[in-house]
Design goal:
Elements (H helix, E strand, L loop, with lengths): L1 H5 L7 E4 L19 E2 L2 E2 L5 E2 L5 E2 L7 H7 L3 E4 L5 H16 L4 E6 L15 H11 L6 E6 L9 H10 L3 E5 L2 H11 L5 H10 L4 E5 L4 E5 L5 E6 H5 L5 H4 L5 H12 L3 H12 L8 H17 L4 E2 L1 H8 L6 H10 L10 E2 L5
Parallel strand pairs: 1-6, 7-8, 10-13
Antiparallel strand pairs: 2-5, 3-4, 4-6, 8-12, 9-12, 10-11, 13-14
Helix pairs in contact: 3-4, 6-7
Length: 349
């Protein structure tokens, strides 16, 4: 979506991505490496391509194979088991093999520009490791922040102020035309931040409740903006990125984050995974709709305009792997556009 907006005349990009799903999709805490998949295709000495024929072990625990079938980008798996140095080898190899003239680190929300000691920061590990892996690449590296504040960590104003402090600038703003194709994917993909960014680009404004703790996020006139910061200006102004650059294992990287930022998001997932692994009885459809209506009515009294589908799954305690069923049950008797990426609260019965 960002590539379509900023370089519309180019061929589709090569995208390196973590295989790091929400726990309600994949109960495995943290990112998967290549040994967590079957059917990957070699894309060099250090990198593997995700294709529609790829799958997890056990089966069906990653959205990436289906994503590979539905988006034009070439998807490659980031393998963090070798720490930042291992990821750097992957990136450098792909720059050479593809003839890339630039690397973009794309983050929705903007916690990627955090110093590392902000009280609202929840996930410094994944972003910091990606930045550390980009240090020393032979092409320009730009950090692109889309939708400041949409990930529920640093507030919008703080992200924009941090971009200005780092000498960054506004690259542009996503339009509805550029974002609407993502709505087809968001019918089945549970990404909250991308859903908020897409909705904002389509002109939606209002308060959205997200995450397992019900964090409220306001969609504003800045929520579809794209900002850019040079990676060299950022790495010297954080607590953890340069330290992560020397790591050679995932364990070393976690130790750096715990020491410098206080916690690793993988630790949080380990604790949460134990709770989600408990068996749940299958709930009747009418009970699920009743509970969803009750939660929607309560959200309306709190001034919420929209809910993400992940937030509904968390609030209703829907078992992992049942997100598609939740969506289908909710849409069955509600007059809502199936491609709309959020669940409206105001005006529902």
């Amino acid at each position: 979506m960002i590539h379509r907006a900023l370089r519309p005349e180019d061929a589709p990009p090569t995208v390196l991505t973590y295989a790091w799903e929400r726990l309600r999709v994949d109960p495995l805490p943290g990112p998967r490496g290549p040994d967590g998949f079957v059917g990957l295709v070699p894309a060099g000495r250090f990198t593997w391509q995700i294709t529609p024929g790829s799958d997890t072990v056990p089966s069906g625990l990653s959205m990436l194979p289906r994503l590979a079938a539905e988006v034009p980008a070439r998807l490659l798996l980031i393998d963090p088991t070798g720490g930042a140095r291992g990821m750097h080898r992957q990136l450098a190899e792909q720059v050479t093999m593809t003839g890339a003239d630039a690397v973009w680190v794309v983050d929705v929300g903007g916690d990627v520009v955090a110093r590392g000691d902000e009280p609202g920061l929840r996930s410094p590990f994944a972003d910091g490791l990606a930045l550390a892996a980009c240090v020393g690449l032979p092409v320009p590296v730009e950090v692109l922040i889309a939708g400041p504040g949409l990930d529920g960590e640093l507030p919008e104003a703080e992200v924009i102020a941090r971009v200005e402090e780092l000498g960054g600038h506004l690259w542009g703003r996503l339009t509805g035309e550029q974002a609407t194709p993502a709505a087809d994917v968001l019918v089945w993909h549970p990404s909250e931040a991308t859903a908020l960014l897409t909705a904002a680009a389509m002109g939606v404004r209002g308060r959205v409740e997200i995450r397992d703790n019900g964090t409220p996020i306001d969609l504003t006139d800045h929520s579809a903006d794209i900002y850019g910061v040079r990676v060299n200006g950022l790495t010297g102004n954080t607590l953890h990125v340069r330290a992560l650059a020397e790591t050679e294992t995932l364990t070393q990287a976690e130790e750096v984050i715990r020491r410098l930022c206080g916690s690793s998001e993988i630790d949080y997932e380990r604790q949460k995974s134990a709770r989600l692994s408990e068996d749940r009885p299958e709930r009747p459809a009418n009970e699920l709709r009743h509970d969803a209506d009750a939660y929607t009515a309560d959200a309306r009294t709190r001034g919420i305009d929209y809910l993400t589908f992940r937030r509904l799954a968390e609030a209703l305690d829907v078992s992992p792997g049942k997100l598609d069923r939740l969506r289908a049950e909710l849409r069955q008797d509600q007059a809502t556009d199936e491609r709309f990426p959020l669940w409206p609260v105001q005006g529902q019965r």
